[in-house]
Amino acid sequence: MFNLNTVGSNCAEAVSVNPITGTVKVSFRNGYGPYTYRNISRRQLAKEVVANAFRGDSVGEFVNGMEWSSTFKR
Questions:
Q1: How far apart, in whole angstroms, are the C-alpha atoms of residue 6 and residue 4?
Q2: Can you give the pTM of this predicted structure?
Q3: Do residues 39 and 22 lie in contact, with contact meaning Cβ atoms separated by under 8 Å?
């Protein structure tokens, strides 16, 4: 699992991704979660891990897009 930088995010408190299994765990700042999202593209996850390491942007767009392209389990 890789922990993404969530410093600039208003929605996500913690985001952990596993590109090998295609899963993401998200805890939201409003107290909801943690949610586990499955069946995420491994390529998308690897790309996000690398991009997050080089930028200080929010992970909100990634989390929002991931919610619509996956199945999740609480």
A1: 6
A2: 0.76
A3: yes
Domain hosting residue 10, numbered range: 2-73
Return the H-helix or E-strand segment holding 71. Answer: strand 71-73
Q: How far apart are CA 6 and CA 17, in angstroms?
A: 13
Cα separation of the two ends of the chain: 18
Q: How far apart are CA 31 and CA 46, in angstroms?
A: 27
What pLDDT digit, counting tens, does each position of 26-72 carry? Answer: 898 888 878 888 888 888 888 888 877 776 566 777 777 666 555 55
Per-residue model confidence (pLDDT) at position 74 = 47
Domain count along the chain: 1
Amino acid at 16: S
